[in-house]
Design a protein that fits this description.
The chain is mainly alpha-helical. The chain has 6 helices and no strands. Helix 1 crosses helix 6, helix 3 runs antiparallel to helix 5 and helix 5 packs antiparallel against helix 6. It is elongated, with a radius of gyration of 23 Å.
Length: 203
């Protein structure tokens, strides 16, 4: 019996059906579900921070080597995004459940974690995409301006680069919003429903 099965059984019990849910089993499943979610978020953050770190080194190297301040600006933007994710994770670690938390406490903690991830992904444009896009836009704009003396083909290449970059950014934003709609919001609804059922059964 997985977390969703237990949730349905609990709701059936609330409706009057003769179903008994062992509190220990429910707590175990809630904790396991919670740990899987935290592990997924952790490895996602590791990948994102790792990529941000590598991009920081790459653009910083380019900027120093070619004495191009726009590459250094992009490096700073990448570093800022990675730093934001690290600080956010450190702050969220304080809200992990204690080992002796009740079922209600575990569900409330899980609900907080899901709500926070929804907030992050819904606002991904402001803290992730915009800083890097702004820095890249300045860099591409300056490169296009410098390429004006190299003829139309060079300028055209930079314009195509900008358009492809915009397409990639739109795709990243769409994927994040898709994850919110198809994964996080249904999960939040399940947790809210289970929490409501627990509250009703405690009275």
């Amino acid at each position: 019996m997985n977390f969703e099965d237990l949730q349905k059984a609990w709701q059936s019990q609330d409706a009057g059906a003769p179903v008994t849910i062992d509190a220990g089993i429910l707590l175990k499943e809630v904790r396991r579900n919670q740990q899987q979610f935290r592990a997924t978020i952790f490895w996602r953050d590791v990948r994102e921070v790792g990529v941000a770190f590598l991009l920081t080194l790459y653009f910083l190297h380019r900027g120093v080597r070619h004495q191009d301040w726009t590459d250094c600006l992009v490096a700073a933007a990448c570093f800022g995004v990675g730093a934001f994710m690290v600080v956010d994770r450190l702050l969220q670690r304080r809200k992990h459940p204690a080992a002796n938390d009740s079922i209600k406490g575990c569900i409330e903690t899980s609900l907080h974690q899901v709500n926070h991830q929804i907030w992050l992904l819904k606002n991904v444009f402001w803290w992730y995409l915009l800083p890097i896009a702004a820095a890249l836009g300045i860099s591409i704009g300056c490169s296009t301006w410098r390429a004006r003396t190299s003829g139309i083909p060079a300028m055209f290449a930079w314009v195509i680069t900008a358009l492809l970059g915009a397409l990639v950014y739109w795709g990243v934003y769409w994927l994040n919003q898709f994850a919110v709609r198809k994964k996080l919001e249904p999960r939040r609804k399940e947790l809210e429903t289970l929490l409501t059922s627990l509250n009703e059964n405690s009275h």
